[in-house]
From TrEMBL:
It holds the Pfam family TPR_12. The lineage of its organism: Eukaryota, Fungi, Dikarya, Ascomycota, Pezizomycotina. PANTHER family: AAA+ ATPASE DOMAIN-CONTAINING PROTEIN-RELATED (PTHR46082:SF11), ATP/GTP-BINDING PROTEIN-RELATED (PTHR46082). InterPro entries: NLR-like, TPR-like_helical_dom_sf. This is Kinesin light chain.
Length: 156
C-alpha cells in the first residue's frame, strides 16, 4: 500500500496518494506502534506528499515528530535521523524560516563531518545545503567559504 501511495504521488494523484498513505500510517501505528521504524517512514512519506502540495505546516508537524522519535530511538547521528532533519530544514526554509533551517543544517553538517569525515559526499551535500541557506539570508561570505570548501574537496 505504501508503494502504491508513492506511485500515486509520482503520477500527481495527490488525493489518492494522501488517502492511502494516511491509511498505511494509521495501520502501522495500530499494529506496530507510533515509534516503529516503518510507522516513522510512513509519516515521513506523508510529509513529502504534503510538501509537494505546499502544505508546509502539516509536513513540518510530521517531520518534527519523526525527528524527535528517531533521535530518541536511533540517536541524533543515525542516518535516518539526519535524513529527516534535512527534510525538516528544507520545510523550514520553504516557509521563510532560514535561521531555523540553518541551525538544523549546521547540526547535520557537524555530525556528518565527525562520523563520515570532511570529504564524504553526504557531508559535502550538507555543506552545500547550508551554503544555499546562507545565500538566501544574504550571508555571502559564509556561503562563499562553504562553497569553496566543497569545490576544493572535490578537486582532491
Amino acid at each position: 500500500m505504501a508503494n502504491l501511495a508513492l506511485t500515486y504521488k509520482d503520477q500527481g494523484r495527490w488525493k489518492e496518494a494522501e488517502q492511502l498513505q494516511v491509511q498505511v500510517m494509521e495501520k502501522n501505528t495500530t499494529k506496530l506502534g507510533a515509534d516503529h521504524p516503518d510507522t516513522l517512514t510512513t509519516m515521513a512519506n506523508l510529509a513529502i506528499i504534503y510538501k509537494d502540495k505546499g502544505r508546509w505546516k502539516e509536513a513540518e508537524q510530521l517531520e518534527v515528530k519523526v525527528m524527535e522519535t528517531r533521535k530518541m530511538k536511533l540517536g541524533a547521528d543515525h542516518p535516518d535521523t539526519l535524513t529527516i532533519m534535512a527534510n525538516l530544514a528544507s520545510t523550514l526554509w520553504n516557509q521563510g524560516r532560514p535561521e531555523e533551517a540553518e541551525q538544523l543544517e549546521i547540526e547535520i553538517m557537524e555530525i556528518r563531518k565527525t562520523d563520515l569525515g570532511a570529504d564524504h559526499p553526504e557531508m559535502l551535500t550538507s555543506m552545500s545545503n547550508l551554503a544555499l541557506t546562507y545565500q538566501s539570508q544574504r550571508l555571502w561570505e559564509e556561503a562563499e567559504k562553504l562553497e569553496v570548501q566543497v569545490i576544493e574537496t572535490h578537486k582532491t
